[in-house]
Amino acid sequence: MKTKFLVAALSLVMAGGAFAQVKPEDAIKYRQSGYAFMAWNMGRIKMNVEGGQYNKDEVIKAANAIQAVANSGMGSLYLPGTDKGKGWEESRAKANIWTEQEKLGKAAMAFNKEANELAKVAQTGDAAAVGAQLGKVGGTCKGCHDDFKAKR
Amino acid sequence: MKTKFLVAALSLVMAGGAFAQVKPEDAIKYRQSGYAFMAWNMGRIKMNVEGGQYNKDEVIKAANAIQAVANSGMGSLYLPGTDKGKGWEESRAKANIWTEQEKLGKAAMAFNKEANELAKVAQTGDAAAVGAQLGKVGGTCKGCHDDFKAKR
Q1: CA of A87 to nearest chain B CA: how many angstroms apart?
Q2: Domain extent listing, chain B
Q3: b/e for A75-109, b at 16 or more Cβ within 10 A?
Q4: Per-residue pLDDT of chain A (152 residues; tens, 9 = 90+)
Q5: If contacts are CB pairs under 8 Å, which of residues 22-41 in chain B contact chain A?
Q6: pTM greater than the 0.80 cutoff
Q7: Is A68 on the interface with B (CB under 8 A)?
Q8: Touching check for A125 and chain B: CB below 8 Å?
Q9: Distance between CA B25 and CA B30 in Å, rounded?
Q10: Residue-wise over B40-53: b if at least 16 C-beta within 10 A, else e?
Q11: Could you tell me where the DSSP H helices lie in A51-100?
């Protein structure tokens, strides 16, 4: 009873409240949000590595955020047909996302691997090692964007 | 040398590439992204709890994502003056965010506490307990929105 009440109350909090099925425009918005949120955290780590003031705690938080987003299962947000459509903005997902699944899977796994490693390296507080690992993460981002994200 | 090269290469990946300081419109976009990404994950957990098909692994991923975003330090994205301004959309942050810091801090800490607990409870795979804890997280979301987020 209590659980049902609390879960019902939750609907007030969440945009729309209709989550029985994720709508295509919401799926696009959520994935754009995940990438933008990671971009912030990549940028924060970069600032720490390059800015001359390394804050170990901030880098750990940022790396943990990237890791959790990377491992959240965003693949489920690529609903069929959502290469077209508008979330926060027009989707730039290319149609080959749905036809080159094996290649995509490899790109996603490479990203996850490097993101997991970044979270580990962040714990050391070694700015140079974090910078090197951040570069590896960024390389997997770029690799996937080159193949599966439309240019503006 | 290698580190510098890799970090420099990273700039290609990140939107804009200028992260020396976060621009107000980007700060708004990043925080809107964080909340939207959490909304997706709240919704996923809700579906698992209510949908009749409970996927423990998916709930863990979603709870970990909420936890990492909650603990990422999004407070730094509330740059002075960014109650006005457009990220993905017009900011709905109320001006009292910058004047009622103690109250805001309590609201933020309550949210973090419940989000951390949700990640723990998710590990048990107990759907009812997860539902109850999701309700507690949602309650802290709503509490903060009531006080610090403008209605549409």
Answers
A1: 10
A2: 2-79+95-148
A3: eebbbeebbebebbeebebbeebeeeeeebeebbe
A4: 344 444 444 443 443 333 458 999 999 999 999 999 999 999 999 999 998 899 999 999 999 999 999 999 999 999 999 999 999 999 999 999 999 999 999 999 999 999 999 999 999 999 999 999 999 999 999 999 999 999 98
A5: 22, 26, 29-30, 32-34, 36-37, 39-41
A6: yes
A7: yes
A8: no
A9: 9
A10: bbbbbbbbbbbeee
A11: 56-70
Instruction: Give the Å distances, CA to CA, from A142 to A8, A68, A77.
Output: 41, 19, 20
**Touching check for B71 and chain A: CB below 8 Å?**
yes
CA distances from A104 to A66, A71, A147, A150, B16 (A): 19, 15, 9, 15, 25
Neighboring chain B residues of A73 at a CB cutoff of 8 Å: 58, 61-62
What is the least distance, in Å, from the CA of A99 to any CA of chain B? 24
Could you say which of B34, B43, B50 has the minimum Cβ distance to residue A37? Answer: B34
Alpha carbon of A37: minimum distance to chain B alpha carbons (Å): 6
Fold of B2-79+95-148: Four Helix Bundle (Hemerythrin (Met), subunit A) (1.20.120)
**CA separation (Å) from A39 to A140, B3, B17, B100, B109?**
13, 19, 10, 29, 25
Write the CB contacts of B77 (distance below 8 Å, at least 6 apart in sequence).
A40, B22, B27, B28, B30, B31, B34
